[in-house]
Specification:
The chain is an alpha+beta fold. The protein has two domains: about 200 residues, no CATH class; about 170 residues, no CATH class. It contains eleven helices and ten strands. A six-stranded mixed beta barrel has the order 2-3-8-5-7-6. A hairpin with a 2-residue loop joins β2 and β3.
């Protein structure tokens, strides 16, 4: 005896439910289709939210250990002095302290002139990577060009670039930052600090060993430099990423809520199918009640029909959602395995359970109505 036959023998209501649903295949199929659409909407929209979150994480990168120390303009502090930088270095016991100078410059090559931002950084290799060429460990001469500006001016390492009327040899083209950063030279240039004259810094970037160390360092900098006056503003990028993650969590919840509406519409369809089925079978139900079938057995049969619709619709909808997730993640992230992340599996399970519970609730009233039928009245109307 195969497992399905054993299931039917153990639960005869399931066998009766399958037979009853097969009497009107089109109506049953349409009801199940509503469940399929609802499950597909919930699970696939949830997966879409996960794809958005993963894509954002890839763009933002791993920078939770980065801190930006900025002058507090509201307190009248426009920039940092060398003494301020030394005080920050004294506070930071573990990590790199990178002071940054900044000004607007004109950049030209072959008659094409652009006005961009120039940054003065002594050790740019701590912040950036080279797409082409090499970033020197001690930056004393030459210029580093951002990826966007290099594309615009058709610049590559070895070329000569004019910055504010002076010629500089291009040492490297920097990789596209592609993330939130305190310094983004994609459409600018990086020069040696000696080209900026007096030692005035627009900001100081601190890289710690970990997110926890960054938080401790940020607190220490605030305590030290803001002891008498709020001279500095300390920004932790980890707090920005946490806010972004919360934002995408809200989007996920909204998308799943939108998908749930379609499943509620499917519940109305199942309710209609179950009610029509019980009306059409009043005579049959009357015979069953007349020969001694209990009300509870009639209710189990009707509920089994609703549950079967929910199970079939849930399984098909979940399978289609997985296929949709695979296609989406291949197209957007080029990584189909994101589909099988635990968060997405949770959406599939929740969508299936929601479909099953919704189907059972939709069949509850028709089952109760059928079980309450008086045998004589049911036979007479049938």
């Amino acid at each position: 005896m195969n497992p399905i036959d054993r299931l039917y023998r153990r639960f005869p209501a399931v066998l009766m439910a399958r037979r009853n649903l097969s009497r009107n295949r089109l109506r049953s199929a349409l009801a199940a289709l509503g469940i399929v659409i609802g499950v597909l909407a919930i699970a696939s929209l949830g997966m879409f939210g996960t794809t958005l979150r993963v894509g954002a994480d890839q763009q933002l990168g791993e920078f939770g250990n980065e801190i930006g120390v900025l002058p507090n303009a509201e307190a009248g502090v426009e920039n940092f002095t060398e003494r301020d930088v030394q005080e920050i270095e004294r506070v930071v016991s573990r990590g790199e302290v990178i002071p940054v100078q900044s000004r607007s410059v004109s950049v030209g090559r072959g008659g094409d002139v652009r006005f961009v931002r120039a940054y003065g950084i002594e050790s740019p290799g701590e912040l950036f990577e080279a797409e082409d060429g090499r970033i020197p460990e001690r930056f004393r001469n030459g210029v580093l060009v951002g990826s966007s500006l290099a594309d615009d001016l058709d610049v590559e390492p070895g070329n000569t670039l004019t910055v504010d009327g002076r010629n500089y040899r291009v040492l490297a083209v920097l990789e596209d930052v592609g993330q939130i950063s305190f310094v983004n030279p994609d459409n600018g240039v990086v020069l040696p600090p000696s080209e900026f004259g007096r030692e005035r810094y627009a900001q100081v970037i601190v890289t710690a060993e970990s997110g926890a160390a960054a938080n401790e360092t940020a607190m220490a900098i605030r305590d030290s430099l803001n002891r008498r006056q709020e001279r500095v503003v300390v920004v932790e990028l980890s707090s920005i990423t946490e806010n972004i993650d919360q934002f995408f969590g809200i989007i996920n919840t909204f998308l799943v809520g939108v998908g749930s509406i379609s499943l509620l519409v499917a519940a109305v369809s199942i309710l209609n199918v179950m009610l029509m089925s019980t009306v059409e079978r009043r005579g049959e139900i009357g015979v069953l009640r007349a020969v001694g079938v209990q009300r509870s057995e009639v209710m189990r049969t009707i509920l089994a029909e609703a549950a079967l619709l929910g199970v079939v619709g849930g399984v098909v909808g979940s399978a289609l959602a997985v296929l949709a997730g695979l296609a989406l993640n291949v197209y957007v992230l080029d990584d189909p395995m994101v589909t099988f992340r635990s968060r997405n599996l949770l959406y599939l399970v929740l969508a299936f359970l929601f479909a099953l519970v919704t189907s059972l609730l939709s069949g509850l009233y028709p089952a109760w109505k059928a079980a309450r039928e008086h045998p004589v009245e049911a036979l007479r109307s049938g």
